[in-house]
Amino acid sequence: MCWIPEYEVKGIPYDTPILGYKVNTANTMRLWRSEACESFDFNKFNVGDYYGAVDEKIVSENLTKVLYPNDEHLQGKELRLQQQYFFVSCSLQDMIRLHLAQSDSLDNFHEKFAAQLNDTHPAIAVAELMRLLLDEHNFDWERAWKITQNTLGYTNHTLLPEALEKWSVGLFGYLLPRHLELIYEINRRFLNQVRIIYPNNHQKLANLSLIDDSGEKYVRMAHLACVGSHEINGVAALHSKLLKETVLKDFYELFPEKFSNKTNGVTPRRWMVLSNPRLSKLITEKIGDRWINHLEELKQLEPLADNPEFRQQWQDTKLAIKQELADYTRQKTGIEVNPNSLFDVQVKRIHEYKRQHLNVLHIVTLYNRLKQNPRLDITPRTFFFGGKAAPGYYMAKLIIKLITSVGDIVNNDPDIGDRLKVVFLPDYNVTFGQRVYPAAELSEQISTAGKEASGTGNMKFSLNGALTIGTLDGANVEIREEVGAENFFLFGLTTAEVEAFKAEGYNPWDYYHANAELKAVIDLIASGFFSCGNANLFKPIVDNLVYEDPYLLLADYQLYIECQDRVGKAYQDPDNWTRMSILNVARMGKFSSDRSIQEYCEDIWDAKAVPIELEEYSQANAVLQVKN
Ligand SMILES: *Cc1c(COP(=O)(O)O)cnc(C)c1O
């Protein structure tokens, strides 16, 4: 049986060399653009259908025009599935072409190529690789399945149920009928195996099936990825543990040997050398430059944390970087910030689970305290926010409005002066990230425990000398283990406590009524004080918090405020703060993407290092050969 598609598009490759750091090698990053096979339909033109004549060109090229920007949520749009299929098919067909240029058989394809499913977005690769092997290369099912499983690995990136991709069988079958047929056959064979292991267990079959048929039928892409891959991993220790206990529990029981953890990392070349030249220079002056590609070498900074002269240099460096962000802030927003204030930063996608609005509750708490007692001695702080909301995410957009509205009042209140400033920096992206992470002193990593898979912003901040205020979530857990509990501001419910709260019937209303300071903050927002008297504007946020509070802001509020009070106090002792900052940087070696990628190479891809011949080495070797 062979698939004859209704329409075809051409994939145009675009190659970008990805250079190694100070080596003579480069990898190729190959991206794809779609193009029409025929750019002009003369038949349609000839019968007077002028729009129709260019229709195919427009439809084909729209396929790769926009990237779906949604974060941790899905829309189930037809164009999105077309896009996923297009990119997957281009890459797999290209890999097969490259393999067949070297070898006359695809039998050892999986020994030469590895494909990592980065979340479920490319999970259609399971069915597409099967289709290519079966229909285009005449493999039998067993051999095709072995190659497919051995080629693919699956990395899960979220536990949030609303983000787990599923496609209605109707849409799927309309767009990719052959793939749906293959998925049904994969499922039939898979469930036959399950039946042998769990006889007469209908619940197990329903839980594991690639098809959700509890109501309207859906293809579960995470299940397809699990069945079609030889390795499955999460992106931080806690996340990988929760995966095995929750969303992929039944798969873990079936094949525990497939599961592992690969804690994320960030590249020190971008997130230190490029973005923070001042701190990089100071570090290199003291310990040399080997840390740049052997991040564990930062350990050598540890003894310097007790050296007063070095601490002074560290502080001076930080102040200079903060001054740069202050200048940028004035230029972009007109807001004048005090470079000597504590730079308290939360930059990341705007999402309720990340709890930017918990940060706002703290700001309004400090504002109320200062209004009640204008002479109160508090640590001056500048709160920086940055981040995008997904286009259709109403609450996320309203949270941005809340931040800027609170800022408009706080920043212009003469009672406050420059003791509190609130800045929302627009258009947050990687380029802006490079300015902000180095200038931060406090990193806000305050997601509800169990919701953030790993986070990588947390690593960028700590690597640049910010201290973290955070929950036991994602990679925060491992960062705290590495830098030491005494150098990390921990607060909040644990994952287990969050689960217990939900199970026992959490009532945020009780927290609102029991805590006078919290009640005053929420009442002030609800009154319209920050919205020109409009009490309706923030009502959706207020109602959500006091009646539902799915992310337990009110349950964590008091713990967060007390922890922030400890942060404020700690900042009053610059020597000790700087000591903690140096120790954070010194102990971040684990969080290099070099370590992370090495683990994927060894445990999943079976990719061996290629020896690199540098000029220096070959000259040295030449000398050796002459001597021999
Ligand atoms: C690192 C980074 C992120 C991820 O931030 P988290 O705090 O881990 O959510 C998002 N956006 C940009 C631009 C980044 O640089």
Low-confidence stretches: 620-628
Q: How does the helix and strand content classify structurally?
A: alpha/beta
Q: Strand content of the residues, in percent?
A: 5-15%
* Helix count from the secondary structure assignment: 28
Separation of the first and last Cα atoms: 64 Å
Shape: globular
Question: Which molecules other than protein and nucleic acid are bound?
Answer: pyridoxal-5'-phosphate
- Give helix % range: 40-55%
CATH superfamily of the domain at 268-591: Glycogen Phosphorylase B
User: In total, how many beta strands?
Assistant: 15
Give the biggest beta sheet: 6 strands, parallel
Kindly identify the CATH topology of the domain at 268-591: Rossmann fold
Query: Tell me, what is the CATH class of the domain at 268-591?
Result: Alpha Beta
